[in-house]
Design brief:
Strands 3-4-10-7-5 form a five-stranded mixed beta sheet, sandwiched between helices. α8 runs antiparallel to α14 (312-319), α13 crosses α15 (323-354) and α16 packs across α20. It has helices spanning 4-8, 21-35, 38-55, 79-82, 86-100, 121-129, 137-148, 157-170, 173-197, 206-223, 232-249, 253-260, 262-293, 312-319, 323-354, 356-366, 380-392, 425-428, 432-435, 474-491; strands spanning 60-61, 64-65, 105-107, 115-117, 134-135, 203-205, 398-403, 407-408, 413-415, 420-424, 448-449, 452-453, 492-496, 517-522. The termini are far apart. It has one domain: Cytochrome p450 (Orthogonal Bundle). It has 528 residues and is α+β, with helices and mostly antiparallel strands. The longest helix is centred in the middle third of the chain and has 32 residues, at 262-293. The chain contains 20 helices and 14 strands. InterPro entries: Cyt_P450 (IPR001128), Cyt_P450_CS (IPR017972), Cyt_P450_E_grp-I (IPR002401), Cyt_P450_sf (IPR036396). Its cofactor is heme. Belongs to the cytochrome P450 family. GO terms for molecular function: heme binding; iron ion binding; monooxygenase activity; oxidoreductase activity, acting on paired donors, with incorporation or reduction of molecular oxygen.
Length: 528
């Protein structure tokens, strides 16, 4: 059949320029080392056999078995797909959607509960709206607990509600105004000055520049701490995030980490120690403020960028109390608040360098430096550019939820308790059905209607999640990104050091592998 090669590419042994053969080699080598042990090999073989005979549950829609996802093999199911480089996994999900459209497909992976891949926005909307039916569940928590603990990324129920309420309080309209109109311009000006000093041939990693901006911003405003993107914590968290992501792809992760997990364990200790440091700093701030208020000898809280109404971590202390849980909550928000925005900006400028005509339109719209009173509505094309970059390079490319009770999706698919629902935002954002025949193209104009940015439903454009779990930092991310694009895009010309297609590295989010090395020149045509 003509369609067969479309998904056979996922198992091809030919050289793939968009993935890392060396990384795949090391992963496979570790697995082979494990399997060379007769006890491990026997245990794996027995587990696979038991799973194939007893664990394969056929899910149904209107009484008929669901179609299997492409490349479902006897015994191993789709397991071979998931141990490959993530870029191949992205293409696999795109292939599933393009072969079968919005049809719900059954996926079978050893160690994974019975599961489905959903692509229909109606099904995803149902998942978003029914928070009480779909939760993170044991499958996700078993793999992400070491890194995220009780933080909002893992939390369900009352603990999730408490952390979300604290986040809503911090991201009030008043605080957001201070955040984006006072703190952001200050740190952005520092980065502009740094880039100007590098003009004339020096190579600069733009991803590191954007990461530094968002790290400084979150550290100052949310935690009253000076943080930097290149510190020990950031490097440790980056590694731990990649290792945690691999747990979702490798069914033997819990065995492999016994033998090869020393680096992960070390980095997790660094991350947790930093979380404890954040809490201790917040407690000292609180005690110092109390002494100042009562006339004691404390010096009080240092200036928080023009009197922001309470830091995020202080809200956690008020709402949660338990220091370990507060540390988990703080680390979760730090990751969500800085990493995803910095990565999204990296992909945006990668696309702008490949599409100079789009950059010219951004510059034409900006015309003058962005001042304190400019709003997103004043820069609709620049906002559309950011949305289009998010569509093609979503910061959270995969999501998994687990049904905590029996339920039926709108298309009639019955999900028993414990089954998992997987959707690939990367693939859904490239759906021809949803986005048209040019879904693979970078075309910001698709977001504009009558000169304004059009809204798409969260189920069609699930970049910011949806329903009760809609991303709290959506507005902050949009305002920050549009401001940075307007200033950086108008002030500088960036020239990539290479012209190869850039891909993401293994992570729970979408960092660009190798960063984005560029040469920087001032835009001589720009006259503020």
């Amino acid at each position: 059949m003509a369609s067969r090669p479309q998904f056979d590419i996922c198992l091809s042994s030919s050289v793939d320029k968009s993935s890392s053969p060396l990384a795949e080699y090391h992963c496979c080598r570790k697995i082979m080392v494990l399997l060379s042990n007769p006890l491990v090999l026997g245990a794996v073989a027995l587990s696979l056999l038991l799973w194939a005979v007893l664990g394969r549950v056929r899910l149904k829609r209107h009484g008929s078995a669901l179609r299997n996802a492409p490349n479902t093999w006897p015994v191993v199911g789709n397991g071979l797909i998931f141990i490959q480089a993530r870029q191949k996994l992205f293409r696999y999900f795109v292939t599933c959607e393009r072969l079968h459209g919005y049809e719900t497909l059954q996926i079978a992976v050893p160690s994974l509960p019975p599961g489905v891949i959903i692509s229909d926005p109606k099904n995803l909307e149902y998942v978003f709206k029914h928070e009480g039916i779909f939760a993170k569940g044991s499958f996700v928590k078993e793999r992400s607990w070491d890194l995220f603990g009780n933080g909002i990324i893992n939390a369900d129920g009352d603990l999730w509600k408490v952390q979300r309420k604290a986040g809503l309080s911090f991201l009030s309209t008043a605080n957001l105004k201070i955040l984006t109109q006072i703190a952001l311009p200050r740190y952005l000006a520092q980065s502009v000055a740094h880039l100007k000093s590098q003009c004339g041939g020096a190579v600069v990693d733009l991803q590191a520049v954007f990461h530094e901006i968002t790290t400084l911003l979150m550290g100052d405003m949310a935690y009253n701490m000076e943080m930097h993107a290149d510190d020990e914590f950031s490097k440790a968290f980056d590694h731990a995030s990649g290792a945690t992501a691999e747990r979702f792809q490798n069914p033997l992760w819990f065995i492999m980490e016994i033998f090869f997990g020393s680096t992960l364990r070390k980095n997790l200790q660094i991350v947790k120690s930093y979380g404890a440091k954040m809490v201790d700093n917040a407690v000292r701030d609180r005690e110092s403020a109390s002494k100042s208020f009562t006339g004691g000898s404390g010096t009080g809280i240092v200036d928080k960028s023009q009197h922001i109404e309470g830091s995020l971590i202080q809200s956690f202390l008020d709402a949660i109390g338990d220091k370990k849980m507060v540390a988990d909550a703080a680390l979760n928000y730090l990751s969500a608040g800085r990493d995803t925005t910095a990565q999204a900006l990296t992909w945006t400028f990668y696309l702008l360098m490949r599409h100079p005509d789009v950059l010219a339109k951004v510059r034409q719209e900006v015309r003058r430096p962005v001042d304190d009173d400019r709003d997103l509505a004043d820069l609709p094309y620049t906002h559309a550019v950011f949305n289009e970059a998010l569509r093609l390079y979503p910061p959270i490319p995969f999501e998994i939820k687990q049904a905590i009770e029996h339920t039926t999706l709108p298309d009639g698919t019955f999900l028993p308790k414990g089954s998992v629902v997987v959707w690939c935002t990367w693939a859904m954002n490239r759906s021809y059905t949803t986005w048209g025949a040019d879904a693979d193209d970078f075309r910001p104009e698709r977001w504009l209607e009558d000169g304004k940015v059009a809204n798409r439903s969260a189920a069609e454009f699930p970049v910011f999640n949806g329903g009760p779990r809609t991303c709290l930092g959506k507005r902050m991310a949009e305002v920050t990104a549009v401001h940075v694009i307007a200033v950086m895009g108008s002030t500088f010309d960036f020239e990539p050091t290479g012209h190869e297609e850039r891909v993401s590295k293994s992570s729970l989010t979408l960092p660009m592998k190798g960063g984005l090395p560029v040469r920087v020149m001032e835009n001589q045509l720009w006259t503020p």
